[in-house]
Each structure stands twice: as C-alpha cells, then as structure tokens.
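Aim 2, interim progress: modelling of the S-adenosylmethionine-bound target.
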Amino acid sequence: MRIDILTLFPEIFSDPLQASLLGKAIEEGRMTVALTDPRDFAQDRHRRVDDAPYGGGAGMVMQCGPLVAAVESLRTKNSLRRVILMTPRGRRLDQALAKELAAEEDLVLVCGRYEGIDERVVNALGAEEISIGDYVLSGGELPALVLVETLSRMLPGVVGDWESVETDSFYDGLLGPPQYTRPPEFQGVPVPEVLLSGNHAAIRRWRRKEALRATRARRPDLLVGLNDEDKKLLAELENEAAGDKEIAP
Ligand code: SAM
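Predicted structure of the complex, ligand included:
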C-alpha cells in the first residue's frame, strides 16, 4: 500500500514512521509512506500557502492552489484514487472505515493547519473528509498518523500473528477481551484459571464472553449483528447480572 501525505510539517512524521511495527512495515516494503510539502507548489517566491479568511476572523486559511497542484502532481505519478482531507468536520474514523481503506492500493492524506483548508479543495480534488474524533488538534499530522498506523495493522504480515489483529477491539465490532501475562498472581489477584488450562476451545469461549461482557458494560451500542453463539453468551451474561442483583442487599 502506498500513502502520500501532504503536510507543511514533514518533520512531525520522522520518528513515528521509523518506530515499532509501523517502522518495520515500511522497512519491509509492505507500506510506502511519502511526504510532500505543499509549499513546494506555492506560486510565489515567499512559498506562501495560506491567507486571511474571507469575511474576517481569526487565523489563516490554507489556500486551494498549492494543495490542488500538489495532489495533481501525485495523481499523474501514481494514478491515486482516494484523496482524504483530515478534518474535525469529516466522517468519524472507525475500524469499519479503516478496513475499507486498507483494501486500497494507494491513498493521499491532506493535513490541514491554521483555521483549516479552503472549502473548495474538497470538490476540486473529489476528496473525502475524515475526522479522528470530536476534538480539535492544531494540525492534521497526528490524525494522518493515526490513520496510517491503523491501516498498517491490517496489511498482511505487519502484525506477526493475524489472530492478534482479529481479536483487537472493534475488529469484529466488539471491544477486545482483557489480557493477562506473568506473574500468575499480582497483588492477590490471580489470572483467570481458564487461561492457564491449555484448553484452547475453553479459552476461545472465555475470551469471546469477556469481549461481550466488556462491550455490554461499556459500549452496548456495539452489540449488533451477533451470531447464535454470541447471543447465547450474552444471555448467560444477562442471567449472571440478574443473579447478582438478587444477591445484592
Ligand atoms: N477551524 C477548524 C474547525 O473548527 O473545524 C479546525 C482547524 S484545526 C485547528 C487545523 C487542522 O487540524 C484541520 O484543518 C485538520 O486538518 C486538523 N485536525 C484538527 N482536529 C482534527 C480531527 N479531530 N480530526 C482530523 N483532523 C483534525
């Protein structure tokens, strides 16, 4: 997968793109990330890419010209299909959208700065808009990194054991189950016995039930489209909760 990122601050990307699993994915050629500075496409000698907002108000707005020219230059090189503007006004990034984007061969991500990007860029580029959440950062660079790292986990071979991707929270719509490692007891709290049993079927069932328990408690909105086994486990959880209520004084 190839991702081109347009940013006025390429230096923000240097360490994150080299570290850990993402760094390895890039080093092994499973993902290519290239950075383009829209200033290189500015039309004046001051390399200007922003101007004051029409109608007045605080801050500066990123201009259409350099951004559109920069993306068009990449399109001719790579026949890029999807252009994504990182913006708090966009569609909220979730695992389903990430899965869809991970199937693409190439993407362009555009990072805004200042008060944002001139609205006409969206149409000029046929771009989609994506937000990483309902809060505002100073620039699109961290949102772009969030997206890149999320996509990298879904590329074959990036995470050594595919099972760990499949059991991630949200991968199949639920929160993930709790995880434990050595020691078997910490501050008097033991690891659930089933995890030490070596019984893979029982462990799989326990994990699924705990994923459902966490989702039921924290994100009941995600409990949709459950299969028969999930429904049965959920019914067990409901019964346990009803039993707990009866016992409580
Ligand atoms: N004035 C804009 C608004 O109210 O929507 C916010 C501009 S923000 C200070 C500057 C840039 O940061 C945006 O153009 C966008 O690229 C990026 N950004 C900030 N928060 C974001 C978020 N939650 N998701 C994606 N991008 C974000």
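The first strand starts at residue 2 and ends at 6. The chain has two domains: 2-152, 185-247.
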